[in-house]
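It is worth pausing here to work through a concrete case rather than discussing structure prediction in the abstract. The textbook approach is simple: state the sequence, then state the predicted structure, then interpret. We follow exactly that order.
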Amino acid sequence: MQIMINNQLIEVDTPITLQQLLKIINQPDKGVALAVNRQIISRNQWQAHTLLEGDQITLIKATAGG
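Step two, the predicted structure:
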């Protein structure tokens, strides 16, 4: 199954959740927001939201500074 994350194509063997995706790409889940097909997904839905073939994920990282 192919999905896009921040305009980079990745391939996974089976359907995965957003939470599993973060583990696959070694991304801590703190300080990030996720959108699937331009729709923000609440953090409490990450374990339940299963990704589909062709989904486009946007991962936004919080940064500190001023």
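Step three, interpretation. The chain has a mean pLDDT of 93. The beta strands are 2-5, 8-11, 32-36, 39-41, 56-61.
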